[in-house]
Amino acid sequence: MPVVRSSSPVLNARAAALAVLQAVLSRRRPLEEAVEETTAWPELSPRDRAFARLLVATTLRRLGRIDALIEACLAHPLGSSLAVTRDVLRLGVCQIVFLETPPHAAVDSAVALAPAAGKGLVNAVLRRLTREGHAHAAAQDPVRHDVPDWLWRSWTTAYGLDQARAIAEASLAEAPLDVSVTVMSQAPLWAERLGGHVLPTGTVRCRAGGSVEALPGFTEGAWWAQDAAAALPVQLLGAETGRTIVDLCAAPGGKTAQLAAAGARVWAVDSSRRRLDRLSANLKRLRLAETVTVVYADATTWQPPELVDAVLLDAPCSATGTVRRHPDVLRLKRPKDVVALAALQGRLLAAAAAMLKPGGVLVYSVCSLESAEGPERIAAALADGLPLARAPNVGAPAMLAPFLTAAGALRTLPCQWAEIGGMDAFYAERLVRR
User: Fold this and answer.
1) CATH domain 177-433 topology
2) Is the pLDDT of residue 7 over 90?
């Protein structure tokens, strides 16, 4: 469906949101890529972009509840020929029930965006939900409506019912903005300037909203956006200064920046040229590019010119630990993706082991809650005979203690620090080359 262009900025923002939502749900495009591919997006004002993004993200996050509210108003399910009408309704319900948009604005804009054959239906459903939607939504269980069944089964199996519910509730909340400061000693300064606070791990946490690029210190390269949990796996490497470290699957580059800021010489390897371009631009902005060699290559086959001191493998994964920031994961990932990604992770582990000097360190990490991509993946790699041995806790700073398992692996959960905004889920292990 072409994006509707209007003289009304309000309608244009909603039209862009509709185009992005359709790209995610109908064409299965990741949210970030769908935004980049929507031609009308750059034409929006920063304020309208922020609204459109919030609208799409909240619709994806609350899709199960939204669809249940819509279905309760229909005599018959909407057929596939009414896919656009369904997505217009979803955005309208999201605004009325979850974003507290003035009902007249939500209804009028939805009717304007709907195809001719769906305008009457959209008007009737949204006007009814203006009256009844909040009461019906209050009776819903967000966890069971909004978390896909396969993911809920996976979490209850791995973590038990109570913790799975806590994980789900935290995952369905909007995430704050976390930033890593280029000069760690300046974290309190930037917390004050950004109106945030310094977390126990050194990350600066701020309130989300608005344009990140417009915040103080961004242009000057004083910090980069990075979830507090995403900054922890690098800490398992130990002292980085002067070491040569390969960052496999490096883009978009938050961990590369950590390594470079700590004084390491870094090979940043990734198979996505688009994402590497972003990594290079970020390193340049942060004034950290000098000690980083950026490599466009398949990480399963590339080898450094000589064996290295350490490898950080932040492997491609299902990303089920990042739903707070990437709600499209709830709608796009399937159990078969976990199986395929676990196989890729095995190949990457073998490639990483071959890059290391004897005694060299490998840190494997994934932003996934799935056991098949975490402890089971490492156990399978070791059982397959990779020349690696677990080396837990060696060199791990004390700040990691709350996140270490009994076996010494790093495991963060979305429900940790829930009272101050939670964190993404990561699993990481430290291994050494035999």
Assistant:
1) Rossmann fold (3.40.50)
2) no
Average pLDDT for 179-195 = 97
**pLDDT over threshold 70, residue 387:** yes
Q: Is 206 a catalytic residue?
A: no
Q: What is the mean pLDDT of residues 81-102?
A: 96
Catalytic residue among 73, 206, 317, 367: 367
Q: How far apart are CA 94 and CA 303, in angstroms?
A: 48
Instruction: Give the pair of three-digit tokens for residue 278.
Output: 């972003």
Which pair of structure tokens corresponds to residue 339?
């199986």
Instruction: Give mean pLDDT, residues 207-234.
Output: 94
Measure the CA angle with vertex 375, ends 406 and 177; round to 5°.
Answer: 85
Q: CATH assignment of 9-140, given 3.40.630.30, 3.40.50.2300, 3.30.930.30, 1.10.940.10? A: 1.10.940.10
Residues forming CATH 1.10.940.10 domain(s) in the chain: 9-140
For residue range 330-382, what is the model confidence (pLDDT) as tens digits? 999 999 999 999 999 999 999 999 999 999 999 999 999 999 999 999 999 99
Quote the pTM value.
0.94
> How far is the C-alpha of 413 from the C-alpha of 417, rounded, in Å?
9
